[in-house]
Design brief:
heterodimer; A: 112 residues; mainly beta; 6-stranded mixed beta sheet; 5-stranded antiparallel beta sheet; B: 116 residues; 7-stranded mixed beta sheet; 11 strands; 48% strand; globular
């Protein structure tokens, strides 16, 4: 069956360090992969989208990689700040035109 | 710029009661969605709509109903509430259908529902 996996354990890092979050998938042929940020008590907010033929995408301090061989996307936040603390969700669109499917999210805690 | 607006924010229901979660968007999006989110789980699609008068089931539609009489509004009705429907519900909209090419979704702030 199709599965999207994100580390359910919170990631704790020190301010200024690079945070790296992982999204693994099985039994998908994703055409697009998206990352969303969700703050406590709020709805998810879109951050970045990467296409299957793109290896890397950047936006300010954010970087996303997409390895279709490893079936994995990495989401990096450089020079992390306490304000980056949130839950980050990955979501996939496959080549079959199915609806966007979300992973369970990873909570990031950046300590000052 | 309101985006997607959901009401109520919080609600406690007794088993067997019914209620409607309201959702409206002001972005003139044709596509609207209802998701539920349980702790540690991904967002699960309940129902979606591709335009006024057209709705379809998502992954977890049982126990819910929707209607889409206008482009702006997409209410979700819970009939005969059960404890398994305790969850956070998110309404969302998009300009184009997801699954057709990298279209992003705009979410509302969520509705916390507890069934006791």
């Amino acid at each position: 069956s199709q599965k999207i996996e994100q580390n359910s354990e919170a990631l704790n890092i020190q301010e200024g360090k690079t945070a790296t979050l992982t999204c693994n998938y099985t039994n998908y042929s994703p055409a697009y992969l998206q990352w969303y940020r969700q703050d406590p008590g709020r709805g998810p907010v879109f951050l970045l989208l990467i296409r299957e033929n793109e290896k890397e995408k950047r936006k300010e301090r954010l970087k996303v990689t997409f390895d279709t061989t490893l079936k994995q996307s990495l989401f990096h936040i450089t020079a992390s700040q306490p304000a980056d603390s949130a839950t980050y969700l990955c979501a996939l669109e496959d080549n079959a035109g199915n609806m966007l499917t979300f992973g369970g999210g990873t909570r990031l805690m950046v300590k000052p | 710029n309101a985006g997607v607006t959901q009401t109520p924010k919080f609600r406690i229901l007794k088993i067997g009661q019914s209620m409607t979660l309201q959702c409206t968007q002001d972005m003139n999006h044709n596509y609207m969605y209802w998701y539920r989110q349980d702790p540690g789980m991904g967002l699960k699609l309940i129902y979606y709509s591709v335009g006024a008068g057209i709705t379809d089931k998502g992954e977890v539609p049982n126990g819910y109903n929707v209607s889409r009489s206008t482009t702006e509004d997409f209410p979700l009705r819970l009939e005969l509430a059960a404890p398994s429907q305790t969850s956070v519900y998110f309404c969302a909209s998009s300009k184009q259908m997801t699954g057709l090419g990298g279209n992003t979704i705009y979410f509302g702030e969520g509705s916390w529902l507890t069934v006791v």
